[in-house]
Structure formats: C-alpha cells, structure tokens
Amino acid sequence: MASIELAGISRSFGDVKAVVDLSVSVADGEFVVLLGPSGAGKTTTLRLIAGLERPDAGRIRMDGRDITDSLPASRDCAFVFQQYSLYPHLSVFDNLAFPLRSPLRRSEPAEVKRRVEEVAAMLHIEGKLARRATELSGGEMQRVAIGRALVRRPRVFLMDEPLSSLDAQLREELRVELRRLQRSTGATVIYVTHDHVEATTMADRIGILEGGVLQQVGTPLEVYGDPHTLPVAQRLGSPAINVLPAEWFDGRAPVGTAHVAIRPEDVRLSPDGEAPGFQVIECSLVKHQLVAERHGVEVHARVMLDEPLAPGSQARFGFPAEHCLFFDAAGRRIGMP
Ligand SMILES: Nc1ncnc2c1ncn2[C@@H]1O[C@H](COP(=O)(O)OP(=O)(O)O)[C@@H](O)[C@H]1O
Ligand SMILES: [Mg+2]
Q1: Could you tell me which residues are beta bridge partners of residue 290?
Q2: Residue 83 lies inside a defined structural domain of this protein
C-alpha cells in the first residue's frame, strides 16, 4: 500500500470553492475518515486524489512521489462510489472479476477465480456468485461494489459514503467488517462520510471538512474531547454538544467568550445545582436522557435516574467548569494556539 500527501490543494467550480488549501498526510496502512455535511468538498477531495479532477493549486504525493500530473490509471486507487454502479447483466462473479480482467491487468483465470472467491467469502456473498447483480438486495449490491475494489490490490482505497444507502443494521455490520478487513490487509483507506458515528468508530484519524476547509485532523478522541472550533464540536456526538449563552457563566468564562459548550454526559443534575429554572421536556430512563429548557435554550443531559422526571417539572443543572469548552463569537476555541 502507499502513503498519500495532499499539500495545499484547492479546486473551484466557477464561483464555488469546493476544496480550499487542503493539506493532510495519510500514512501507509492508515484509515482516515473525512467527515462533513453535504457540499463540504468530500467527493471532490477523493476525485482529486484519484486523478478524476485536477487541482487549481497544490500538489499530491503518493509514497513521496509527485503524482499531481499523472493519469488516474497510473495512480492505482480503487474507488468505491457513493452510488454503486454494477453491471446489471453480469453475474456477481463477473462483476467482481471485472477489474481483474481489464486489459491493463489480464490476470490468469485460475487467479481470478481464487481472488473472487476469497473476496466473496470476506463479504459473505459467496453463495450469490452465480446470481445476476439485479437479483440482489441493496445491501448485497453494495457488498459487491466494495468487493470490486477489494479484488484488486490497489495502493489506496478511496471510499465515498459506501454505506450511506444501507439500513442501520446492515450499515453497522459492514462498518465492523470493513474495519476488520482493513486491519487484516494493512490497506491505506481514505473514507468519506457525513455520519459521525461511522467516523468515530472506524477512523484512526478523522479530518473534519466544512465548506471545503479542513477544520481539524486528529484521533476520534482528540477531535471529540478537544475540538478547536464550534463546528467541529457540534459535528461529533449524539445528542449533540450543548451550546449555552455566555451570560449563564458570568465571571466563570474567559474574556471574549460568546458560547459555552458542554457534552450531555458532562452535565450534572443535582437538587442544589447552580443553574435552576429548567423545565423538563423529555425524560427517558432507557436512554438515560433528559431534555430540559430555559429561556428557549435546550439542554440535553445524560443522566442515571431511578424515577423519570415528569414533563413540565423543574430541574437544576450543574455545568462543571472543567468540562466546559469556551468559544469566541467567530466559533474559535478560546486559548487555542
Ligand atoms: N463538477 C462540478 N461542477 C460544479 N460544481 C461542483 C462540481 N463538483 C462539485 N461541485 C460543488 O462543489 C461543492 C463540493 O461538492 P462535493 O465535493 O460533491 O461535496 P460533498 O461530497 O462533501 O457533498 C458543492 O458545492 C458542489 O455543488
Ligand atoms: Mg459527496
């Protein structure tokens, strides 16, 4: 496999700045997830790495070699597209074998069979090899699409929201499978998603993209626990981090604080808590979740309760200072370099 380095990459489409001065290094064998909302520039970034787009500025290196001007085929990236595109008239076997039979590769038939069967077993579709692609469920089709990337031994895997069209249960199953496969093969993977659960469970490191700008790169724990901007703090976690007005923290927040953010698991519920006057909206013992409101601001707390609090009843919260994150009006974390 290979390492990838993006150095100051930019790409615009007319007035739209899809990717802005993006720099990131992905180590050989690393699983990096680019996380961001729709339109953040995730697909464009993958297409730039694959050579399907050319950057307006910046360089791309693979294993230290500059590949900015080289053809897609010579880069040897396997791309799993968001919309799986199988050949409907071909069997599952032939769909999986297709990349191995390309004129560039021309593998021996026995080798093709061996690779296809190996990958089909990994993805638990070995019983479907004789079927036509159109006879599969959505989840099975997506496995074939991923399998078509896996049959080759590319230098890098580029995966564009490969699980987003699947139902929750299958998504979870394939998430674990893909990660297991990656670990056992030592593959370099750049994986794109808008799903923060996918990002935090799969990634060695997460890069958060917003409006074409890479906001922060770090391990899941680093970006969750130590976000540098408010958008990064809000991108990870469910329920989302609470964002509270600075007035509630008079004298306890650093100068210049506009927003105070605190994770639901860090909010305390106590009879003598320092923030009274919240009205309970929802309380679930099963999800350990309490939602309450004061002056139009909702607070989500993860709490253990023996008895539910009735909607409409009063609650008092504690927001321990050591768990509070302070942001300025521009959304930058205060005290960050
Ligand atoms: N070929 C294109 N022509 C014009 N605009 C494009 C093209 N590709 C992407 N864009 C725009 O660039 C921005 C980033 O798109 P994209 O990389 O697809 O984001 P994402 O994959 O994160 O949803 C969007 O505003 C999108 O409309
Ligand atoms: Mg996309």
Answers
A1: 283, 301
A2: yes
Q: How many domains does the chain have?
A: 2
How far is CA 96 from each of CA 12, 132, 150, 165, 251, rounded to the nearest angstrom?
Answer: 35, 12, 9, 20, 63
Report the CATH number at residue 301: 2.40.50
* 192 CA → ligand 2 middle, Å: 8
Question: Looking at the domain assignment, is residue 335 inside a domain?
Answer: no
Instruction: Give, for all 337 residues of the chain, the pLDDT tens digit.
Output: 899 999 999 999 999 999 999 999 999 999 999 999 999 999 999 999 999 999 999 999 999 999 999 999 899 999 998 877 889 999 999 999 998 998 777 789 999 999 999 999 988 899 999 999 999 988 888 889 989 998 988 999 999 999 887 888 888 888 988 898 899 889 999 999 999 999 999 999 999 999 999 999 999 999 999 999 999 999 999 999 999 999 999 889 999 999 999 999 999 988 776 777 899 999 999 989 999 999 999 999 999 889 999 999 999 999 999 999 999 999 999 987 6
Residues 6 or more apart whose Cβ sits within 8 Å of residue 187 = 1, 29, 157, 181
The Cβ of residue 93 has, within 10 Å, a number of other Cβ atoms equal to 18
Q: What number does the ligand 1 atom closest to the CA of 194 have? A: 22
Residue among 11, 43, 44, 48 to mutate when testing ligand 1 (max atoms within 8 A of CB):
44
Closest atom of ligand 1 to 44 CA is 17
Q: Are both 49 and 122 inside the same structural domain?
A: yes
212 CA: nearest ligand 1 atom? 14
Among 73, 178, 163, 75, CA closest to 124 = 178
The protein residue whose alpha carbon is closest to atom 6 in ligand 1 is: 13
Pocket test for ligand 1, best of 10, 16, 38 (most atoms within 8 A of CB): 16
Distance 3 CA to ligand 1 centre (A): 25
